[in-house]
Specification:
Layout (H helix, E strand, L loop, with lengths): L9 H5 L2 H32 L2 H17 L1 H10 L2 H25 L6 H33 L4 H30 L1 H20 L17 H18 L1 H31 L8 H21 L5 H29 L14 H34 L6 H30 L1 H26 L11 H14 L12
Amino acid sequence: MAIVNTSQGFWPVLLNRPFRRLWAAQWLAQTSQNTINFVLIVLIERITGSSMHLGLTILAFTLPGVIFAPISGVVIDRWPKKVVLVASNALRGVIVLSYLLVLGLAPDHSNGWVLLTLYTLTFLMSTVGQFFNPAEAAAIPLLVGRTHLMTANSLFSLTLALSQVIGLIIVGPLVVKLIGVEAAFVVIACLYGVAALLVGRLPRDEPRASHASAQGGWQRAKSDLREGASFVISDRPVLVSMTHLTLIASLVMTLAMLAPGISTRVLHLAPEDAIVVFAPAGVGMLLAAVVLGRWGSHVSKQRLVRGGLLAMTLGFAMFGVLAWRFQATNQQFVFDASVIDLPVASAALILATIGMSLSLGLAMATVNIVSQTLLQEHTPDRLRGRVFSVQFMLNNLVGIPPMLAIAALADLVGIPQMLIGIAGVILLVFGVTLRLQRRLIQPAGRPGQPAASEVEQITTIDAILDLPAAAGAPGGD
């Protein structure tokens, strides 16, 4: 049984032992995934010294998100989420150890079959990972219930952001430098093993029996996918939240693509020094997680989303203006420590950039956390796996074309102009969101609670599907 505690903040959620196990497993699995990304990039660079092969490695990581996300949703909705979580971590641990087997059997790592095998293993590992993330997201409401969803999502959003930094910037470089690539594979496999043990102790959830069991497997899968897609399209709050989550994922990919150019062409630093600018954004994400986890339930979720989108618009526009000023004045972001008297204009430019990065991280994390919470609140349990798999698929599918287009346009028109263009796109999304939310929100209801029309819509959907309310929280102790 889940812990019944109506107080707000992190403590009631952290008292929930099953949630703590799921959260710890997420820390280990996400950090391992980002660490293996770094280790593989180093390995392929050492073997080939080719950007083309490095591109193939990145493609092997991202392509499964487009191909297998819908299939993962069908599996998650038809299998116990605990089984999916355990199997995905255990299989990834085995695949990581397989890298060692391939490298050990072929001393000459530059052989074509060795590279092909490495790409295949990478593709398989990413494919298995597509089942972990949606199952994890769908399991959260089962452990904490509606009351603590925002707090739980704040913690998971914080973990997702920090695991990228920890895996790519701290753990990855450290393990490669201190123990080498081969030993790094062993450490990562052990982390996946511990994550599998943690989720193996979660309460077992039983998926509901399918009313379409007489159909063939393929027809049943297509029917499930059609049902999940139809629900997303027909339920306006779900569709709006899905749009916001896809927007945030695309922006993160775009910033990652522009980061080296921002560092070298705008701030006159080395490519790897972009972290100096984006570190305050990480602090902003941490601040958003803490604030929303403690006080987010007292504010209307729709207002939080609108405020976050508006702050993102202003943040990217300001980022573009500041980038243009850096280029125009030839100002370096990190000034020489030997210079005692920094010009006031230069100091103001640097401080403004730090403040912009902080506010941008705060706004993006706010929109992401609140939108994830709204998506979970409006999705019945039977469809959560499919809905979340659509989300992860869109994150990969929608993010890749803009990322490539923006990278090309940035070389033609300049990075500052592209940042201002991104602000315009966010402003457009803000306008559409404002119009849709005005149609959905009724004046009745306490701040932070669903509007009357939203509650009626959830009740109607549950009645049609013959499901209990999504607010139920089985499991936990």
